[in-house]
Design a protein that fits this description.
Elements lengths: L6 E3 L15 E2 H10 L28 H15 L6 H4 L3 H13 L7 E5 L5 H13 L2 H6 L1 E6 L2 H11 L3 H4 L2 E5 L16 E6 L8 E5 L7 E7 L6 E7 L3 H10 L3 H4 L3 H13 L4 E5 L1 H13 L3 E8 L14 E6 L2 E4 L11 E3 L4 H12 L1 H7 L9 E7 H8 L13 H4 L4 E8 L5
Parallel strand pairs: 1-5, 3-4, 3-6, 4-5, 6-11
Antiparallel strand pairs: 2-8, 7-8, 7-10, 8-9, 11-16, 12-13, 12-14, 15-16
Length: 431
């Protein structure tokens, strides 16, 4: 089994234990504290919210959907955890599909190097390494390295234990306990081709909020401050000055919505907003933008595979791309109506806008910037990207028959229609 000495810990910045102190903070800083503070954050609790199954589910022994849901309910009651990830519920088949996608696309003339951001219980890493050991050419497994970048010390230790169950994996696997969004933790730029895996990571990255008073008003960034002599937290709206918020707005094109209107439409919009004023709130994935910027800087030849929710039902919080804020205790889930209710004891997870993810990915790779100054009529993209729903991804790269019950019901394909896979590969891989 791997030794804990392979963990490298870089302490993240600390926030006030009251989250919002004497100075106002941006919404993303509040969310980062609530989820990742090393002492009080949701993902830093010793018990850990992520479940680990002792053995794989034998779907072909279950009669159908009712039997599967009953089996799943019993699992949650036995483990008393917040959730099981898809890679855990459908192990090893979910990770095997990812491994096959990597094998088909990777440049196997160089050693295979994989990074996983937020590796959870370590199941994905172990199953991918199992697949490479059994199915890839021997030189691929013998020369590969797999690095997990994990912010939670308790999950980092669990990953070492999980992967260490196979002795030969241990020399090829390591955990770096740090925040992947911090550029310093990556050291120097690594020019070798590599793969980056992010499963259910994007949904927990910090977001910001921008607000406008009505349809014709400019966007303002949202800050949080504490009232004097009170613990009550309130939102404060300021002109856009934060670099990440401003960059996100420009990538989406929100800055051009009003600028590109002709005088007639602008006048009509102004009149309409005065008669029927409608405040607007939009959640911006600034944490995702920051992570992509760092990854493209540190790993300029990376290929990326990410999977996450494209839609979340029954969201009670206002705003486009608003999150679910949920607490689970004693097997009962409670959804909150305000993100400010999350104080380290609640999950905060967002739907992923895959159209926006692609735009940010291209922007951070430098391609979007080259487009602005290019004189070529047909500039070449730096990356090839594709978004597939989970069913299509598994039909292409996985073995769907392995997660099918006796009557033909397939929970991976039938129950995860709100999740998608995003693949982004440098164009030089296809030369």
């Amino acid at each position: 089994m791997a030794s804990d000495t392979r963990i490298r810990w870089t302490a993240p910045a600390l926030f006030s234990t009251d989250i919002v102190g004497d100075k106002p903070i941006l919404v993303r800083d509040y969310i980062r504290w609530a989820l990742y503070d090393p002492n009080h954050g949701y993902f830093s609790k010793l018990s850990g919210p992520v479940g680990l199954l002792e053995k794989s589910i034998r779907f072909n022994q279950l009669q159908g959907r009712t039997a599967y849901l009953k089996y799943l309910d019993n699992l949650y009651k036995q483990h008393d955890i917040a959730w099981f990830t898809p890679v855990e519920l459908f192990k090893p088949w979910y990770a095997h599909g990812i491994a096959e996608a990597i094998l088909r696309t990777a440049n196997l003339s160089v050693p295979l190097k994989i990074y996983e951001i937020g590796g959870g219980s370590g199941t994905c890493a172990k199953c991918i390494m199992d697949y490479m050991m059994l199915n890839a050419p021997p030189k691929v497994y013998n020369n590969m390295t797999y690095t997990s970048v994990e912010i939670s010390p308790s999950l980092a230790k669990r990953q070492l234990e999980t992967v260490g169950e196979v002795q030969s994996h241990s020399s090829r696997f390591s955990v770096e306990c740090r925040d992947a969004t911090h550029k310093k933790g990556w050291g120097d730029v690594q020019p070798e081709p590599c793969w980056v895996i992010m499963l259910e990571v994007l949904d927990n990255l910090p977001h910001d909020i921008v607000y406008s008073l009505n349809q014709g008003s400019p966007w303002m960034e949202v800050w949080l401050e504490k009232a004097q002599n009170s613990s009550q937290i309130s939102e404060v709206y300021k002109p856009i000055e934060d670099k990440q918020i401003d960059q996100c707005i420009k990538i989406i094109g929100m800055d051009k919505e009003l600028a590109n209107e002709n005088i007639l439409i602008s006048t009509a919009r102004s009149m309409w907003s005065k008669v029927f004023p409608k405040p607007q709130r939009v959640w911006l994935p600034t944490g995702c933008l920051q992570l992509l910027e760092v990854l493209h800087w540190a790993l300029p030849k990376m290929s990326l595979i990410a999977s996450d929710f494209s839609y979340l039902p029954d969201i009670k919080i206002a705003g486009d791309r608003a999150p679910l804020v949920s607490t689970k205790k004693d097997g009962r889930t409670v959804d909150h109506s305000s993100y400010l209710d999350a104080k380290g004891d609640a999950d905060i997870f967002f739907p992923t806008d895959f159209w926006l993810l692609e735009r940010m990915d291209h922007h951070c790779s430098g391609w979007s910037n080259e487009m602005k100054g290019s004189t070529s009529s047909k500039p070449v993209k730096k990356r090839r990207t594709i978004t597939l729903d989970t069913g299509a991804f598994m039909e292409e790269f996985g073995l769907p028959s392995k997660t099918r019950t006796k009557d033909g019901y397939n929970p991976l394909l039938d129950d995860f229609k709100n999740t998608k896979f995003y693949l982004s590969v440098p164009t030089h891989n296809f030369k």
